Amino acid sequence: MLDIQDMAKQVLAGNRRALARAITLVESGRADHREQALELLETLRGHGRTALRVGLSGTPGVGKSTFIEAFGLMLTAQGLRVAVLAVDPSSARSGGSILGDKTRMERLSRDKMAFIRPSPSQTQLGGVARRTREAIDLCEAAGFDVILIETVGVGQSETMVSEMSDLFLLLLAPAGGDELQGVKRGIMEMADILLVNKADGDLKLTAMRTCADYSGALRLLRKRPQDPQDFPKALTVSAVEQNGLDTAWAEMTTLNNWRRENGHFKARRAAQARHWFEAEVRERLLARLAVDPVRSVMKDLGSKVENGALTPSAAAEALLCEHLSLD
Ligand SMILES: Nc1nc2c(ncn2[C@@H]2O[C@H](COP(=O)(O)OP(=O)(O)OP(=O)(O)O)[C@@H](O)[C@H]2O)c(=O)[nH]1
Ligand SMILES: [Mg+2]
């Protein structure tokens, strides 16, 4: 039997093993674990700690892992505690990224000031969202100063990560003008800071040109209320040579401080909390439809609708009121 109150105490004390066990608990699909996870999260609610939650996205190979290792080490050297969470909806399929990240973030994973948690093998984006959101809460309760949430750039997962971050960074590769247009407008609009990575060696000039192109593109976007002047902005970095990381951190700090002073930080977190509440309700309602007995009732009602024995509306009414007790 898990002692949830004790686990909560140890998480609050910043015990990394307790934190790891707590994350395993919120990841579990078992009903009894779910109940304990809710108790744990409820016990920890209102702990009063605030980490800076930073989402980071980018296409495969752009240098996310290399960047996180270098950036994370820079922050821990400044005395900050850094947690890294990876969101990879495809990890169940590829199976390779967890191993890859562990070897790539070798130094950071050995750092006592850092905590790295790879993505679990889970395919459903909904499950990944809840797990990541709760893992963020746990890391925050454990007193981490910065939580980096990495995701590979595949559409939906970026939106999801930006909905759980205070700042959202997009890591980009140096490239010609064609590829600039390959970045979807919606993703550009979510980003607070664009980082053109690999600004070193032969790629340095291309990176600077790419950065200028993106700066131009950002100026054309609609101004957002949550931005001070000159944001969002594009910068060049080299994760390998560890260049520009301090500037990136300074810009992130400037933006975050401004948002905190102007009420945007709190407002964004509040809106996110509401968003995830509604998403969870939707998700769980849909999940009910997919399992028996509701699933078979739905199938039967569907047949009756097909052969004209019931109207679609009457069948829907019957399902929702009689079988889901929603009216
Ligand atoms: N020249 C140069 N190469 C880099 C830089 N950052 C990363 N790379 C290289 O780019 C390749 C991919 O880097 P990763 O950090 O694994 O990229 P990733 O975005 O995590 O990739 P996935 O996990 O597959 O999505 C590696 O060979 C890195 O050495 C950089 O700043 N400069
Ligand atoms: Mg990686």
TrEMBL record:
InterPro entries: AAA+_ATPase (IPR003593), GTPase_ArgK (IPR005129), P-loop_NTPase (IPR027417). Signal peptide: none annotated. GO terms for cellular component: cytoplasm. Pfam families: MeaB. Residues 50-194 form the AAA+ ATPase domain. Its EC number is 3.6.-.-. Keywords: Hydrolase. GO terms for molecular function: GTP binding; GTPase activity. The keyword Hydrolase applies. NCBIfam families: lao (TIGR00750), PRK09435.1 (NF006958). Belongs to the SIMIBI class G3E GTPase family. ArgK/MeaB subfamily. This is Putative GTPase/MT1543.
